[in-house]
C-alpha cells in the first residue's frame, strides 16, 4: 500500500520511516512549507506537494498519515475519508471534541479506517506496567503519578507557542497520560488542573492535573515544557501490596542553565527496544485494515482524551474541578 504524509516536520519524518519499516511505500509528501515536502520526498523517492488536498486525492495513495498541526486534523481527516483513504492521524485527534466527532462521522460514512496515534499504549515500559497492575502484582491500585516533558518545542514563531492552536503542554503533551490513565484505570469522574495559562508566546509552560477516577483511584499528572533541554518520563503506581515505577532518566542531582533559542520541532521519547513503539502502532493499524483484529486504541478513545484535555483547560481557567 502507498502512503501520503501530510506534514513533513520531525514527527512526519519519523512516521515516514515507520511506514517503510512496515513494508509500505511513501509516495506523496505534503507540507505548506514546500522545502520540507521536497526534502522528505527526495529521501523517500516520492512526489512533493505544497497542497495537502492534492496529495490526499492522489490516485496512487491508499493511506493518508496526518502529522500536521492539531487544528488541521479535522479538515484533512474529512478530506481523506471523502477520497476513500484509510487514515492515520497523530494525537491530539483534534483541537476540540466537536472536531473529533465530525472526523469520526466522516470516516464512518465513507467506510474507511481511522486510527489515532496514542503511542504510549505501545511503549513497552507502559505495557509492562499495565500488565503488572492488572495481574494484581501491586494489589488494589490507589494512587498514580505520571510526569512527562522537557524543552519547549519549536522556535518563537512555532504554532506550539500559539495556545489557541496547540493548547500548550496540557493539551499537546499531557494528553498522552490522560489517555493512558483512562486506558488502564477506567473512566474519570472529575479533574482539577493548574497551569501557567500564558496569553503571550513564551518558552515556558507547566501544568499539573489531579484526577479522581470512578474506580476511586487518584491520579496526579505533570506536564512540562519548562526544561532547558531534553525530555523525561516518569511513572509511579502505588497499590495496597506494593508499587511499580519507571523513570526514563535515573541520574544524580544536576543543574543546567537555560539557553535562549529554539527547541526541536517535535519531542519524541524513544525506547531502547528492537521494534519502535511507533512501528508497533502502525503494525496494529495495518492488522485492522487487513481484517486481522481490532486496534488497541480507537478514534473514540482519542476523542475521549481530547474531552479530558478540554476539561483540564476549563478547570485551569475557572480554578475549580470539572466533572466528566
Shape: globular
H and E order: EHEHEHEHEHEHEHHHEEEEEHHE
Radius of gyration: 19 Å
How much beta, percentage-wise? 15-25%
Strand order of the largest sheet: 12-11-7-10-9-8-13
Separation of the first and last Cα atoms: 40 Å
**What structural class results from the helix and strand content?**
alpha/beta
From the 3D structure, determine the CATH topology of the largest domain: Dihydrodipicolinate Reductase, domain 2
> How many strands appear in the DSSP assignment?
13
Fourth-tier CATH superfamily name of the largest domain: Dihydrodipicolinate Reductase, domain 2
What is the CATH top level name of the largest domain?
Answer: Alpha Beta
In the CATH hierarchy, the architecture of the largest domain is: 2-Layer Sandwich
* Oligomeric state of shown chains: single chain
List low-pLDDT spans: 251-258
Amino acid at each position: 500500500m502507498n502512503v501520503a504524509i501530510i506534514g513533513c516536520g520531525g514527527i512526519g519524518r519519523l512516521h515516514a520511516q515507520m511506514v517503510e519499516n512496515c513494508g509500505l511505500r511513501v509516495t506523496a509528501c505534503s507540507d505548506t512549507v514546500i522545502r520540507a515536502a521536497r526534502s522528505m520526498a527526495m529521501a523517500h523517492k516520492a512526489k512533493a506537494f505544497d497542497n495537502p488536498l492534492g496529495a490526499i486525492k492522489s490516485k496512487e495513495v491508499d493511506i493518508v498519515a496526518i502529522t500536521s498541526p492539531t487544528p488541521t486534523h479535522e479538515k484533512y481527516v474529512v478530506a481523506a475519508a471523502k477520497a476513500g483513504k484509510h487514515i492515520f492521524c497523530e494525537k491530539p485527534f483534534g483541537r476540540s471534541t466537536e472536531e473529533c466527532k465530525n472526523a469520526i462521522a466522516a470516516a464512518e460514512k465513507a467506510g474507511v479506517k481511522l486510527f489515532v496515534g496514542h503511542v504510549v499504549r505501545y511503549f513497552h515500559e507502559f505495557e509492562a506496567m499495565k500488565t503488572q497492575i492488572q495481574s494484581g502484582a501491586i494489589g488494589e491500585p490507589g494512587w498514580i503519578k505520571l510526569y512527562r516533558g522537557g524543552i519547549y518545542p519549536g522556535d518563537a514563531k512555532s504554532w506550539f507557542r500559539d495556545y489557541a492552536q496547540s493548547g500548550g503542554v496540557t493539551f499537546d503533551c499531557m494528553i498522552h497520560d490522560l489517555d493512558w490513565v483512562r486506558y488502564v484505570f477506567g473512566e474519570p469522574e472529575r479533574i482539577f488542573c493548574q497551569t501557567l495559562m500564558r496569553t503571550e508566546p513564551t518558552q515556558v509552560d507547566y501544568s499539573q492535573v489531579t484526577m479522581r477516577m470512578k474506580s476511586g483511584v487518584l491520579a496526579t499528572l505533570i506536564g512540562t515544557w519548562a526544561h532547558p533541554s531534553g525530555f523525561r518520563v516518569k511513572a509511579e503506581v502505588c497499590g495496597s501490596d506494593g508499587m511499580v515505577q519507571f523513570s526514563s532518566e535515573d541520574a544524580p542531582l544536576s543543574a543546567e542553565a537555560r539557553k535562549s533559542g529554539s527547541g526541536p520541532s517535535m519531542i519524541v521519547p524513544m525506547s531502547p527496544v528492537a521494534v519502535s513503539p511507533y512501528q508497533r502502532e502502525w503494525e496494529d493499524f495495518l492488522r485492522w485494515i487487513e481484517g486481522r483484529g481490532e486496534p488497541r486504541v480507537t478514534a473514540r478513545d482519542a476523542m475521549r482524551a481530547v474531552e479530558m484535555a478540554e476539561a483540564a483547560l476549563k478547570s485551569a481557567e475557572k480554578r475549580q474541578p470539572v466533572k466528566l
